[in-house]
Write a structure and sequence with these properties.
MetI-like_sf; 288 residues; Sugar ABC transporter permease; cell membrane; transmembrane; UgpAE/MalFG_permease; 78% helix; 4% strand
């Protein structure tokens, strides 16, 4: 019996290896060398000449310049962007979760609405979304009529006014960002057995209690997955102010900025994983 279990475990490992092999091959073939070379350039002054690329050792000068000498290159745009991300990420997750729960219900035309919510992911490129925002098509019409922006200015701390107003003015991004998350939440909702909900109804649980005690604890791993996906997606969006500063005018400085930003994203993801581990422990008893 133990031999059969060992063979089954080996087979699963081989299956997993086969699934990730295309990604590993693609990473080694197209990403690994540029990634390592960009790290190398961040410690050198790079000159492109007719004879090729010339590099002059520069140590950590570029890192010192970005972090200390010219902090505005990083902090002036990064801090507001982090505030905006802190507002955008919960909105995207909550919106995706609610839409996924609605799309999981039995109603006429359910497949059509599932397609509608996923279509922006397929057809809308970053440039199209940028054009929508520039033309003012991403705003919510009721914001101006209800003068919500004036209430935000009056009651919200000044450091958060601009990020919140920017999220409201480009609310179309929420729909554009939510397609994949809705799909993941929908798949996660369908992993919860219907018999659990039937037992809850028999015991007299209402939909509100069912959501908090069955649906939400069962979706915790999928919330974590969507959180990581949203963070990475948001931090690599074309409107990202740090990415827009990476230019070919100075390869060494741009490479150093990219690596500093990469480490910031890793720290952000590490905080998310820490929060997830604590939330998962809190809900583990409810899922058992």
């Amino acid at each position: 019996m133990s031999k059969l279990k060992l063979q089954g475990a080996t087979l699963r490992k081989l299956e997993g290896t086969l699934f990730i092999t295309p990604w590993v091959v693609g990473f080694l073939a197209f990403v690994a060398f540029p990634l390592v070379f960009s790290l190398y350039m961040s410690f050198h002054r790079v000159k492109v000449t007719v004879n090729g690329i010339e590099t002059i050792p520069n140590g950590v000068e570029y890192y010192r310049e970005i972090l200390f000498a010219d902090g505005g290159l990083l902090y002036d745009d990064l801090i507001p962007f982090l505030r905006e991300a802190a507002v955008m990420i919960p909105i995207i997750l909550i919106f995706s979760l609610l839409i996924a729960i609605l799309l999981n219900q039995q109603f006429w035309g359910r497949t059509f609405f599932r397609v509608v919510f996923f279509l922006p992911v397929i057809f809308s490129s970053g440039q199209i979304i940028l054009e929508f925002i520039k033309q003012g098509e991403g705003t919510l019409s009721f914001v101006e009529s209800l003068r919500i922006d004036s209430y935000i200015i009056e009651y919200v701390p000044k450091t958060w006014v601009e990020p919140i107003n920017h999220v409201i003015s480009s609310f179309v991004l929420v729909l554009w960002y939510s397609g994949v998350q809705i799909l993941i939440f929908l798949a996660g909702r369908q992993t919860i057995s219907s018999s659990v909900y039937e037992a809850a109804r028999i015991d007299g649980a209402d939909p509100w209690n069912t959501f908090w005690k069955i649906t939400l604890p069962g979706l915790i791993p999928f919330i974590f997955l969507n959180l990581i996906f949203t963070v990475v997606d948001l931090f690599t969006f074309p409107t990202n102010p740090i990415i827009s500063k990476v230019t070919t005018a100075n390869y060494g400085l741009s490479s150093a900025l990219a690596w500093i930003y990469f480490m910031i994203v890793l720290v952000f993801i590490g905080i998310v994983m820490l929060l997830y581990s604590r939330v998962d422990k809190a809900f583990s008893g409810k899922r058992s």
